[in-house]
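Training component of the fellowship. As part of building independent skills, the fellow (R.M.) carried out the full modelling exercise for a liganded target. The chosen ligand was uridine-5'-diphosphate. The inputs are recorded below so that the supervisory panel can assess the work.
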Amino acid sequence: MTHVLVTGGAGYIGSHACKALRDAGFTPVTFDNLETGWQDAVKFGPFVQGDLMDRAAIDAAFAQYQPVAVMHFAALGQVGESMKLPGKYWRNNVMGSLNLIEAAVAAECENFVFSSTCATYGDQDNVVLDEDSAQHPINAYGASKRAIEDILIDFEAAFGLRHVIFRYFNVAGADPDGEVGEFHQPETHLIPLMLDAIAGKRDALTVFGTDYDTPDGTCIRDYVHVCDLVDAHVLGLKWLQDGKGSRVFNLGTGTGFSVREVIDHSRAVTNKAVPYTDGDRRPGDCTKLVSGSTRAEAELGWTPDRSTLETMITDAWRWHQTGHYDK
Ligand code: UDP
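Fellow's submitted model of the complex:
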């Protein structure tokens, strides 16, 4: 069996990645501390409950499964929280990743796929961001992810650990088969919060800022379907297995939508009113994050064909109605 060690495999993106890996013939081994993940999302391979701050636990997982690659999703990922508690983000994300990277080198595992973020670019005056754009993160979450990218570059130079870094834009949607989906506790992301508000499960959504320099005054984001996103990870793994060099890929669609446009699409998809109120800006938010994502399509052969806003909201709404949100 060809094992892949998937940190954060019990989380939203990691669990979808495990399904994609299983479907591609790999055996995903989930390594997760269950702090933000869910054990019942681990459906596609073995589970190791462990923490990335525990180097011995990581070494034991490498020894037991001899993975051919690592897919590293485990991280704290809330922009707002990272502004209030930067130490928590630097400690957990950077030190945990350093443990994992050192363990991979010690175990002679040669392929490392890393989940990074468009938040590493920061706010750049409404430009479309390609992989060569300068990285000036404006929040501790983005800064911690950029630091991990730097670690990977140094470890390739020193030890030959090759990497593919994916910088995600805004991930949305759910497995169309309904086996896994998005569930964060607490939830901070726009689309699941909006669906909760539509379903009457929480108060009205607050639109964070209506005075941005955008056509309707609300922030613009580039949304990508989680299934398309994880398909790119499998392509990235194969890229490394083919012996190709380390590479950075943006994963977005190149099209941005404002918060108001997402509200309008949600109303159309669900055929229900979206309760919302206009509020203040959220510290750490960039005005506009839109991907120049042609590299992944050209070089990996990636086709993000589920990443229309309609499909993402439709799949998220279907998952929402399965009742997983009522745990
Ligand atoms: N947003 C909002 N209200 C919310 C949550 C998010 O207006 O309750 C906005 C947020 O300011 C950003 C966009 O929706 O412009 C996407 O935010 P999310 O937290 O989903 O992802 P992020 O861009 O922070 O990774």
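The panel noted the following from the submitted structure. The mean pLDDT is 95. Residues 86-106 form the longest helix (21 residues).
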